[in-house]
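Weekly structure sync - notes
Attendees: PM, LS, DV (DV joined late)
Agenda: review two folding runs queued last week.

Item 1: First target. Sequence and structure tokens pasted below for the record.
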Amino acid sequence: MKKSMNKFGNVKYNPYLSSMKETKYTGYFVDRDGNLFSNRRNGSLRKLNPKTDMHGYIKTTLQATPGGKKDKVAIHRLVAEAYIPNPLNKRTVNHKNGIKTDNRVENLEWMTDQEQIIHSYENGLRKKNQRSIKDVETMAYLKSIGWAFSKIGDEFGITGQSVYGILKKRK
């Protein structure tokens, strides 16, 4: 099989390769369907089988450079970084259909934390009484600077007693 020198390095010729993009992790590639590949030493590509984490996201551990620090990375983030422009520098990647294992480019979009929360409520992915981690952290911060439970509750549309219960569970 012939070898080609291209933007992917010394990889054996593979017509499928032209539709892939290299990630920020040297020697690792993603395709538009959310599949992850590694460049083997012999120049062939190997499809990797990342695992689903306890929150339902497909993740794996990669090294940015050989012998470098290992990072636990979400496949949907690698796909978004490779294929979806992010001119507004939004921090999170959203699954449009709410299915955390559907990492196709068409199903991903960049969002802010607030947009993610709104999307999750509008699509029934989060119960109305379920608080985000950011909400709970904000409540804890407000309490730490001296706000009363009732005042914090007013900010979040709940009772002071509910705020107390949420923060008590947090400890």
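Item 2: Second target, run right after the first with the same settings.
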Amino acid sequence: MAGTSLISVGGPIMTASFDIAGRIVQDQLAHSAPHKLEILSGITREQVVVVKGQHDHMDQVLRSMGRKFVHVTPQKLTPDILRSAGIAFVNCTRDFPQDKIALLKKWVNWRGWMVSSDWALTVVEQAFPGFISCCGHKIDDRCAPVEVLDPNEPLTQALLGQEVNPVWWFEGGSYPIRIDDHRAVQVLIRSTEQLVAGCENNAVLVRFKPVPGGGVLHHMSSHLYAQRTEHRDQRHMQDVSAYTTELGTSPEVAAWARRAAAAQEGTSYGSVQAATTTSQLVTEMFVQCFGDEDTLSGEDTVVDGG
């Protein structure tokens, strides 16, 4: 292993890496999937909600993608906000009022897409008991190799085709995911190493529908934004131009990425690859959510405070 670097949340390297990743993903879609760009262009600010947490920072990822959104604390989440929303990112938090958990439950059961991370497992467990839960242990700070279970799943395509095994950073204190309903819960990504005793499935990213005809819930262990770059070989320590060449990025975007990386020392192949993988995952979540004709529209959503 050539080395491991922890990129600080909101730090200049992470910010530069996600800015570059956003341009790379847009370039990829323009050439390979313009219909997805059309879906993305139709999403309004009111349709995307980010609920603040203690550690995760999905707002940074979305800003780098040029995505506008409603940004609220759990305490400020209201029926009016969710009435227009199609997708809500619930960042890592344990501080969630009971009435707001009930509000999220009603919204997801209607047809909302919820994406939660790490400590927000406690929110999921209370809103939708019997699907997933915390097994009572916490994961040590570590990087572990992960695998995609369904190679045909578009949501996790970004992790496939890499010349080295993808690695996921579990921040110290992350909650492992226990699968309580194996028929209803689909494991999309799992660790190939044992994370903690008592959680044999080693799930990293899972998905389930709480009720038939309702919305979809995705939950992941650790965080989407604060991912660590683990340099497994010398290639990942190269500059960004090596990565854009490997991807076949257009000359214009590749040149811009090279200049942007040069302006922030420490931005590398590895940091941009990690950010691009995250951006691709989030982009596909948007496409699947808003590409579904049954996704929430502000006019037919039934969400109230009861």
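Discussion on item 2: The first strand starts at residue 3 and ends at 5.
Action: LS to circulate a short write-up before next sync.
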